[in-house]
Write a structure and sequence with these properties.
- The protein is mostly helical.
- 57% of the residues are buried.
């Protein structure tokens, strides 16, 4: 575990955080006019692709991830989560436009523009490997772990039982292929999202007297204004920025390169896909994550256990009803993310192998869902952070260079490559 902690600290040092924020600002500048044009001209939004992507994003990162950011970085982490969201809008738009432009057969998303746009099969292959690893960590094990801990705290359900149920439902959906995944998420995401937002608003309204204090705490802690001395202030800000950006990326996935994979089956213009991704970010970070944070902060509940923190906060507004409402909603969010990320990982594997071994991947994914409910939380979150960071390191060079107009022309050989495996 010490090795994983050291590796995670190295990957998620200040360099990557600055790179993510700077790359987002750069993409906003480069793509801002294109974003406005796409917003005016878009007539057809790919609903199934949007809900598949939103289902992958609107998971436990919006619940446990926000609570974890508050525990690790204090209220100020929410400000930096917003900052990461604003910068992430440019990244998500660029990633989806580039994915649509350079898609070749089975190779789509970041592997497509890294290979055919940037001309780097090595980065494309490295991204695909990291994405597959992330699908097991962020997209699978963290979801079933949070589901298991919530059900255990509220209903005393053994984690192994939760893991078995999660693995069984996931298998029933994903073994049917992309069509069944899309149908499941199209039906589930709107219902679960509306129910959860209604719960958070109820908690906030009932604790509304503390809403001004909650916003004040977010802005004060974001810049360390409450710290007694400069050194303490600097450390407080560092923790807030790190926790906010990491958990923001965990939630909306901007900069990771996964969004293009999740929209890969959509039949829509590149600009429409980019606008769709920005809309998903707004719903994810600025609506769902913000309401979760305000529900916790207005409740006045504190603690070091993110899962218990959420449950205790919701009890202040919903009473014992939180014990019956929050666990199934959390479980449904987690299932949506599991199923969405299984598609993302499968697309990365298809690009890496030319469409082979997908059934084997899905079987292992279901097994990981079972294991995630039973392993230690710290290990699960650390592995997820490492995989996320490695995806970003592979993805960002391509997005920055291509969004800035430095892309190479696609050669005739690349254009005819079809679904050939990545050359690594």
């Amino acid at each position: 575990m010490q090795f994983l902690d050291s590796l995670n600290a190295l990957i998620w040092g200040s360099g990557l955080i600055v790179l993510l924020l700077a790359a987002g600002v750069f993409c906003l500048i480069c793509c801002g006019r294109d974003m406005l044009d796409a917003l005016r001209q878009t007539e057809r939004i790919p609903l199934t692709a949007c809900l598949t992507s939103l289902g992958a994003a609107m998971g436990t990162g919006n619940i446990a991830g926000v609570a974890s950011a508050l525990v690790l970085g204090g209220p100020g982490a929410i400000f930096w989560m917003w900052a990461a969201g604003i910068c992430g809008a440019g990244l998500l738009f660029a990633e989806n436009v580039l994915s649509a432009r350079f898609r070749r057969g089975e190779i789509t998303g970041a592997p497509a523009y890294l290979r055919y746009g940037l001309g780097s099969p090595l980065l494309a292959g490295g991204f695909a490997v990291c994405c597959i690893a992330a699908s097991f960590g962020m997209g699978c094990m963290t979801q079933t772990y949070t589901m298991a801990m919530t059900l255990k705290a509220a209903c005393s359900v053994p984690p192994a039982v939760t893991g078995l149920l999660a693995a069984g439902i996931t298998a029933a959906v994903i073994l049917g292929g992309a069509g069944r995944i899309g149908k499941f998420l199209t039906a589930a995401v709107p219902v679960v999202s509306v129910l959860y937002l209604g719960m958070t608003l109820t908690v906030i309204v009932r604790n509304g007297a503390h809403l001004g204090e909650a916003f004040a705490a977010i802005f004060r802690d974001a810049f360390g204004w409450d710290a007694a001395a400069g050194g303490i202030a600097g450390e407080a800000v560092r923790r807030a920025v790190s926790a906010g950006v990491r958990r923001g990326v965990f939630s909306n996935e901007a900069g990771l390169g996964s969004s293009g994979l999740l929209h890969s089956d959509a039949d829509a213009p590149p600009g429409a896909l980019g606008i769709c991704a920005v809309g998903e970010l707004i719903a994810d970070t600025f609506l769902c994550c913000t309401l979760t944070a305000l529900a916790i902060l207005t409740s006045g509940v504190t603690g070091e256990d993110a899962d218990l923190l959420i449950l205790s906060a919701f009890r202040t507004g919903l009473g014992r009803g939180a014990d019956f409402l929050l666990p199934p909603v959390t479980a449904a969010f987690a299932l949506c993310t599991l199923i969405g990320w299984s598609f993302c990982g499968a697309q990365a594997l298809a690009g890496l192998t030319g469409g082979r071994y997908l059934m084997g991947y899905r079987a292992v994914f279901c097994l990981a869902a079972l294991l995630g409910a039973c392993v230690d939380a710290e290990i699960v979150w650390t592995i997820a952070d490492i995989a996320n960071g490695m995806m970003a390191y592979c993805n960002l060079p391509g997005v920055i260079l291509l969004a800035g107009g430095a892309e190479r022309q696609v050669s005739e050989q690349a254009a005819c490559a079809g679904s050939a495996p990545l050359d690594i």
